[in-house]
Design brief:
Elements lengths: L5 H11 L11 E5 L2 E4 L4 E4 L2 H4 L8 H11 L12 H11 L6 E5 L2 H20 L5 E5 L8 H6 L3 H4 L9 E4 L4 H7 L4 E6 L15 H12 L2 E5 L23 E4 L10 E5 L1 H4 L15 H16 L2 H22 L3 E7 L2 E6 L10 H11 L2 E2 L1 E2 L4 E4 L7 H18 L1
Parallel strand pairs: 3-13, 5-6, 5-7, 7-8, 8-9
Antiparallel strand pairs: 1-2, 2-3, 4-10, 9-10, 11-12, 12-15, 14-15
């Protein structure tokens, strides 16, 4: 197959696509495992995984086969009817988890919108009065639709979109006194990421979520954890909350759940989930046969190929290599993360460069065939696919080291 040249795609994008993304100057056309290729045939090692979407790598043969087979049978039929793959996916996700019921949608932001509605409905039913306040964290990211945008604790994303929804409070992440003060009898829910991704890959102290759980229980607020980026094995466990020894009342999922195919989910405990009834929430496309078949293939592959065990091994290699790199490079200030979710914090080097250092590193890696991204001015994020091999980790670390030496 012949592809359009990257220059042609750039022209089409400029002429016909709304200008909502800062795109790198390449056009990706093919992927396999941890690698992708652009329209000119250049190969890249993908340590971003479509922003954690392609958890099992690009075009995993079992996921491709499942999608191809289902596409020839039934792609969509709407939620006016029972859907076999949806029911089976719910069972597969919920069995062995602390949750009882699932709602399927198309994306992480939709899952968080559903969670916001569920929290407010539950508060009304449970307490008999309106308890609408939802507490979230500064530097959080929960999505771009209006409710999830309001929940996102980054004010630069709010600019020009007001008035936003009322009833949200923001507190510093990993700050127990702040959340103690913010959570009151007016609080419907606390919504937090187990690890902040877009905010710079920040991992909380081990006792943080235990105290948050206690604070929520004290006032009767529910605890929702946004696992859109951290879920589905990214941190070495199926769900990141498992690292902290607590059970949230609900979680949201998306990204890696479909292995590249769009699907989101809200999982909740039964006493909370039951406040939803026909007409209270819905979706046209969510949980369709094709999306659920893709997600089932992801779960089956994770089980059959020992993906969680592999993540633990790969994580040790990645963090070990990064710590060695840090010892050799004075410009690396900190290595943060868990599993295969990593942030490289570099020093603010305004005296050495005119552009933010993380942006320069990301661009330098791109030019050398490695895909990473800058989530803050000083934080480079790595999200390699969960199937990444040790040789690929070494290759990526070599490139990062070269870029650091050449840039500063």
């Amino acid at each position: 197959m012949e592809y359009l040249k990257t220059t042609e795609v750039k022209d089409l994008t400029r002429n016909y696509i709304m200008n909502t993304y800062r795109r790198a100057g390449i056009s990706l056309v093919k992927g396999s495992g941890a690698r992708v290729w652009d329209a000119e045939g250049k190969e890249y090692l993908d340590f971003l995984s479509g922003i954690s979407v392609c958890g099992l790598g690009h075009c995993h043969p079992k996921i491709v086969a499942a999608i191809q087979e289902q596409a020839g049978k039934l792609m969509h039929c709407s939620n006016l009817y029972h859907i076999q793959s949806q029911a089976c996916l719910a069972q597969a996700l919920l069995e062995g988890s602390p949750f009882d019921k699932a709602f399927f949608c198309n994306s992480g932001t939709e899952a968080n919108e559903a969670a916001i509605k569920l929290a407010r409905k539950y508060a009304k039913v449970k307490h008999g009065v309106t308890r609408s306040v939802i507490v979230t964290a500064l530097k959080s990211f929960h999505g771009r639709t209006l409710g999830s945008l309001t929940a996102t604790g980054q004010m630069e994303y709010h600019k020009d979109f007001g008035p936003l929804l009322s009833g949200f409070k923001y507190v510093p992440f990993n700050d127990i006194p702040a959340i103690e003060q913010a959570v009151t009898p007016e609080t419907a829910a606390v919504l937090l990421e187990p690890i902040q991704g877009e905010g710079g890959v920040h991992v909380p102290d081990k006792d943080y979520f235990g105290r948050v759980r206690e604070i929520c229980d004290k006032v009767g607020a529910i605890l929702i954890m946004d696992e859109v980026q951290t879920g589905m094995g990214r941190t070495g466990k199926m769900f990141a909350f498992e690292h902290f020894g607590i059970e949230p009342d609900a979680i949201t999922l998306a990204k890696s759940l479909g292995g590249g195919f769009p699907i989101g989910a809200l999982l909740a405990k039964d006493d909370i989930a039951q406040v939803f009834s026909p007409g209270t929430h819905a979706t046209t496309f969510g949980g369709n046969p094709l999306a659920c078949t893709a997600a089932l293939a992801v779960l089956n592959t994770m089980d059959n190929e020992g993906i969680l065990e592999h993540v633990a091994t790969a994580s040790r290699a990645l963090f070990g290599g990064l710590e060695k790199l840090k010892a050799e490079c004075p410009h690396i200030a900190e290595i943060r993360g868990l599993g295969l979710m990593v942030g490289i914090e570099v020093q603010d080097l305004q005296n050495l460069c005119t552009e933010p250092p993380a942006k320069l590193i990301s661009l330098g890696c791109l030019n050398k065939g490695l895909l990473v991204n800058a989530v803050t001015n000083t934080t480079v994020r790595l999200l390699p696919p969960l199937i990444v091999g040790e040789s690929e980790i070494k290759e990526a670390l070599d490139i990062v080291g070269q870029v650091l030496n050449e840039t500063f």
